[in-house]
Structures are given as structure tokens and as C-alpha cells.
Amino acid sequence: MKKAVFYHAGCPVCMDAEQMMLGYLDKSKTDLEIVHFGEDASRISEAESVGVKSVPALVIGEDVYHINFGASMEDVKNG
Question: InterPro entries given for it (predicted)?
């Protein structure tokens, strides 16, 4: 089973992308963790360390997929 982490900041673009992830990823093949920075800002540095430049973003293994554009990580850090 592949591990995937979906990072987002809670903006409308991010929330739409979260619903898409929940609906489209095959839960029997993918272990999806959702990280909402508004609820857990301590994970921002983790996201940056794996290559997340903007949110929403999906990380599968070492691959980072930036989905649409909700906010830059700089915007996320500055709240």
C-alpha cells in the first residue's frame, strides 16, 4: 500500500481538492493522510522538507503533485 499525504491550508481551492482526493484515490491501494495546516501548523516544515511549494499538494512517496493553486507556503507560514 502506498502512503500519500495531502497538505492544505483550508482555503476553498484546498477544500475542493480534499474532497476530490477522498473521492478518487483507491483506499485499498493508498493510505491517505490529510494535513490541514490551520489545524496543525507544526507540519509546515515537514511539507517544505519534502518539496511542497504551494497548497493544495499531494505527496506520494517522494513525488510531489501541486494541485491548482490555493496559497504559497510563504502565505501559509504568514497566516
Answer: Thioredoxin-like_fold, Thioredoxin-like_sf
